[in-house]
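User: Could you check the structure of this?
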Amino acid sequence: MTNTRVALLQLRTPNTQAAALEQVTPLIRKAAAGGAKLVMTPEGSNILLRDRDKLLAALVEAEDDPFVQGVQRLAVEFKVPVLIGSALVRRKEGGFANRSLMIGADGAVQARYDKIHMFDVDLPTGEKHRESTIYAAGDRAATVQTPFGLLGLTICYDMRFPALYRALAKAGAMAIAVPAAFTRPTGEAHWEILLRARAIETGSYILAPAQGGQHVDGRATWGHSMVVGPWGEVVAAFDHDKPGVLFAEIDPETAAKARAAIPVLSNARSFAEP
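Assistant: Sure, the predicted structure tokens are below.
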């Protein structure tokens, strides 16, 4: 299989779906013009709004979301699949989800993944986050076929839980998506280290499109979107938090060679916990 060009979009998502679509449209156009065979967006691509009541009032089911519908049209127009790293949506069965959606070049939804691990923390800076009070946690890992092979789906805080990445790699994923909206303190301290660790542990490409900068709702996100190779090397990265398009080449053979050189997926053993 030949190398595949991918494009990671770094966004600064505003507080309405219409404004979010307006921001992402020229970036998808640029990615397609640059030869990308897969475009990826970060976590919360459709809306970011700190006011809980206003946010929940704005959320709709994925098929009715103006941002999701717009991306489906763009995928068809530019003939390129787009992974919406996550959209914040209303669930059919009630409640809300932080959900990845793979949109095919035909505009159809090919795969869905609901974020499993909820970001419930009190940061040293005084910031508090309670995702579980808004979103229902997913309970199933997911993969999807792409032009370069099988892609594992995760979202942001998932990256701190290696067992999920190992499961995706053992299921055949040669690359794993990590769309994110990292806070600045944790981004500066842990972003690159965790991404490189997940790549090394699984012999996988790690594709991490990020939110970046000062948002309309007042939050600040780290940016620094990054692609890490299966040996832990940084293949491509932004050194800033501004919106943009990050291109990288994905070679499935590189992942296969890394896994053959250090076969951690097959060498692992079960053990009794202390």
